[in-house]
Amino acid sequence: MTIDLIIRDKVLEAVEKLYEQKMPVESVQVQITRKEFEGDLTVIVFPFLRFSKKSPEQTAEDLGNYLLQNINEIDKFNVVKGFLNLGISSSYWLSVLNNAYANPDFGFKKASDESPLVMVEYSSPNTNKPLHLGHIRNNLLGYSLCEILKANGNRVVKTNIVNDRGIHICKSMLAWQQWGNGETPESSGMKGDHLVGKYYVLFDKEYKKEIAGLVASGMGNDDAEQNAPSIVAARELLRKWENKDPETIGLWKTMNGWVYKGFDVTYKKMGVDFDKIYYESETYIIGRDEVMRGLNEGIFYQKEDGSVWADLTADGLDHKILLRSDGTSVYMTQDIGTAKERFNDYTIDKMIYVVGNEQNYHFQVLSILLDKLGFEWGKGLHHFSYGMVELPNGKMKSREGTVVDADDLIEEMVHVARKTSEELGKLEGLPEHEAEETFRLIALGALKYFILKVDPKKNMLFNPEESIDFNGNTGPFIQYTYARIQSVLRKAAEQGIVLQPLDMNLDVAAKEQELIKKVVLFESVVEEAGNLYSPALIANYVYDLVKEFNQFYHDFSILKEENDQVRNLRLALAETIAKIIRSGMKLLGIGVVERM
């Protein structure tokens, strides 16, 4: 148990013994002492005043004396108004460092066969277009969340649902039939997902021309949108698909196959993967059957046009369509089927959907519908809702071809990383192949860190140039610090310096203590990030640790320190911090570089 948790429990014990009152755990706040005050950890006393019936200062004195007598690691305390500042012994900080240094999995909990099984859905692409910047945030958040959940001792299944059916797919298919002239990824030299996305954009341009022509001839805009030849033909193609027309199914399989190969390349570039992939073309049938069961059991109702609806007014919502009048499914139908299939496939304890906040209502409804259908896990579903990501020039629109393709953005990031590194002379002397690999690590580190450091709930603006700054709160700054530590450790080895067991009687200076306190926090930050589903907590913790180390590195010598025991301590501290940087960045899906 870490010292902050020991203090928390002893404070609860003290309040019960001194004031004969029991308090909930969350009422005790233990935090790192502010730098302008003396001490290591601070207990906020104000919540206890109603029990002590004393002043903040006297209450803090009571608690301070109790903790001093009952916690061996505390060697002094002082009181500043309603704040109890506690001094922790040097031997404790050394023991913590020793434990962190010796434990290769410091901060992580190991899963067992009895650990909770958490399924996380992320990515969820459509097969009518390539992955874009919005998908990048989704994939990076989903993958990082999985790593954080695993680090908290959960078993995790990473899953994807591919939206491979529907009118949007038929639009690309129809455009290819009309204007493709047999073009393939091989004949065009384009990635398959980019090629299919090209025809999705072509469809939209033709569709808009047709609408404009019909409106000019006197038709209303709404009627023109419904009766334009292209959309009528796309609907007919969808009906053929639903009826399993062989030619339509064959083209659908061919074009989706092109897209899947393209997706796989992009996923590999991003460094994300999946344990199980589901397809809407398969799960929507299961969902449709469940909706019909709900209709037969009186859970849902049918309108005169044949469409099936759910009345959610008793739940404070509205009426939700589940099957259209022509019998075709909506997204909700597919999600019902996918959820049932997943819980049949796995004994899931928790299901998490990583989907943008524009779908908050959708998942609220999904949870209610699954509960109404009798699935006991329905209300336990969790929507990991996140904000949109934009570029400096505004929002992206797939139909208009104004999206930023994930592949293009990644390559642009590599270009910027190469240019910036060469200008700063960061990789001089590295062999060309090693330099190129490092450029890519820096580029992806910059992209991932810039996106993941932001609170997932917030909208964000992504700026490629700003993300590759080697100073400030960026991935490259953290990677550079890791490489700097590795350089120090290599030089120590070259000089024949071998790390020895720490001298537990060594008086730890204030700056080393500050760094060790940061090290201690890693365990609790990993736990909190898992509880709150927030990769941003990990990202910003690693940055704070790196910033603290760099200041220490600037002010104090490591290898030139004349006192062998102090030098030994500083090397152990540097190596431990490097390990935490590597572990923390791994939780974000980011690699580190050994030389820079």
Tell me the layout of helices and strands.
Elements lengths: L2 H17 L10 E3 L8 E4 L4 H4 L3 H15 L3 E7 L2 E6 L1 H13 L14 E5 L11 H19 L3 E8 L4 H13 L5 H4 L3 H25 L4 H7 L1 H14 L3 H25 L5 E4 H17 L4 E2 L5 E4 L7 E5 L7 H15 L4 E7 L3 H13 L9 E5 L2 E2 L15 H19 L7 H21 L7 E2 L2 H4 L7 H20 L15 H23 L2 H21 L8 H24 L9
Helix pairs in contact: 1-3, 4-19, 4-21, 5-19, 6-8, 6-10, 8-9, 8-11, 12-13, 15-16, 18-20, 18-21, 19-20, 19-21, 20-21
CATH superfamily caption of the largest domain: HUPs
Q: Biggest β-sheet, characterized? A: 5 strands, parallel
Strand content is: 5-15%
CATH topology of the largest domain: Rossmann fold
Number of helices: 21
SS elements, strand count: 14
Q: Which strands sit side by side, in order, in the main sheet?
A: 7-6-5-11-12
**What structural class results from the helix and strand content?**
alpha/beta
Question: Runs with pLDDT <50, length 5+?
Answer: 394-401
Q: From the coordinates shown, what is the CATH architecture of the largest domain?
A: 3-Layer(aba) Sandwich
Residue-averaged pLDDT, rounded?
A: 92
User: Helicity, in percent?
Assistant: 55-70%
Shape: globular
Number of domains: 3
The CATH class name of the largest domain reads: Alpha Beta
Rg over C-alpha atoms, rounded to the nearest angstrom: 29 Å
